Amino acid sequence: MFHKDQRREGLSSAIFSLWRNWAIAIGFLAILSFVSPLIPQEWLGPVCIILFFSLQGVRAVMKDQKVPVCSRLYKEVSVILLIITGIVILRYFLTGDNAFEITGQPVQEHAPLLGILISAPVTAIVAACFLAQKREPLVCQLCHLRYGSVIKNGYIGRLYHREWRFQTRLIMFITAGLSVVDWVYYLRVYINVNLNRADYFFFIWLPLALYVLSLIYLGWRYYSLWVYNCQNDEGYFIENPSSSTVRFIVICKDRMLLDIRQTDKNYSNGQIIKRFDTPAIVKLPYQERIDKNRAAELFKQITGIKDAEIKPLYESPDNVTFRNIFHFFAFIENPDEIIESKLRGEWFSLGELRQLIIQRLVGAELNSELSRIYHIAMAWKTYDREGKRLYKFKHYRPTFRLKDIRTWDVDYNDGHWLFVGHLNEDSHFYRIRRFFKQLEKKFRQHTPTFHLFT
Questions:
Q1: What is the mean pLDDT of the chain?
Q2: Phi, psi of 335 (to 5 degrees)
Q3: CB 108 within 8 A of CB 193
Q4: Which of 343, 421, 344 shows the shortest CA–CA distance to 377?
Q5: Cα angle at 304 between 299 and 307, to 5 degrees?
């Protein structure tokens, strides 16, 4: 089977990267809970900052891995560390003379700060907020932009999304239970004079033991998943062989051609749902690249239209399952050319496309393409590469028309424009967020890169 060994190796790396993500990300929180009772409380804030930037260094290393790595858990823990840092620093500066703990005991200046009492409830709350979040976070959007929809809509994307939700629910339940146990002990038993054996158990050894048990549990879970997918089951490699798909977005003036005959029958009750998609799709044996000229030949073969203008849109590479997708525009002059061609479909305006998207009648691939085109084009038309407005009017949004796409000179493979769409002069706390992003970028540039578990 073509690329069989490479695909098995890629799947193995992707599966075990989930365990590695948990071990590293949650390990940072475990380190915080372990060291906080052992150091003076004035050092806890700097320790949190060091852990945060160390985690960003880990994210920089993971970004250079050959197999795509899900960074969503790293992002989640980064937010947790920032919140903990803010709480610790705020508590330190707001605690004055003759201050009292929640338990009514006087604050001991040189007594350690029990980090688990802060980190556990913060982690549970942040995890719950991430699970309730309906909008896809920026870290996922940038990943999809880098690797394309073949990762998002393929096996690896579904695996990463499912396991991220599982891991987030797991850490939420663990830290919620730990919060209840430790806070009950703190309020009813703890005396802030010194740490006895029971204090060490509840505030240090119990969190560490739960972390180790979670490593064992998830290690067994992903080992079983690896055996099922890469050892005992050859079905995936046979049913989904290595292939390349070439997709053409057919546009004539201000309308787009869609095939309305496609259906999605993946429902247990037998319900049939229409899924609108482009009719110009061709599947080929796996190829690393398809240039503009080759794409023009393919479009002519599958449609019979000779004078269409072909422009590259973007590529969706997949180094794990070797099932990449190449996306192109196909512009034609007259809509009547479709009548005598091999294509079948109907023309839709931009307003009609919006209604189809709202009603979830657009296929996953087409939805990803339209979202990418719109967000990158609007960022490119509104801001410069630094995120500064090209127009004097705040929150001004230029027009978006299908007929203008043909004349635009924008690289849809450039993920920087999606980043600009989220971080620009019209976004909240632009200068502060931009400063931290630049600081993080410099930190990553000076972080040595090496490959882990590859």
A1: 82
A2: -65, -20
A3: yes
A4: 421
A5: 70
Residue 25 has which token pair? Answer: 């990300």
* CATH 2.160.20 applies to domain 242-422: no
148: tokens are: 């394309």
Q: Going by DSSP bridges, is the β-strand pair 263-264/273-274 parallel, antiparallel, or unpaired?
A: antiparallel
List pLDDT tens digits, range 197-243.
Answer: 888 899 899 999 999 999 999 999 999 888 877 765 554 554 456 78
CB 325 within 8 A of CB 247: yes
Domains of the chain by residue range? 4-231, 242-422
Would you state the pLDDT for residue 367?
A: 86
12: nearest Cα among 193, 162, 236, 186: 236
For the entire predicted model, the pTM comes to 0.76
Amino acid at site 53: F
Report residue 440: phi and psi, to 5°.
-65, -40
Q: Which tokens in the block code for residue 14?
A: 């992707």
Cα separation of the two ends of the chain? 22
Give the number of residues written for the chain: 454
CB-based contacts of 182, cutoff 8 Å, min separation 6: 114, 116, 117, 120, 202, 203, 206
Write down the residue that tokens 């095939």 correspond to. 259
Q: Which of 307, 311, 310, 290 is nearest to 409 (CA)?
A: 311
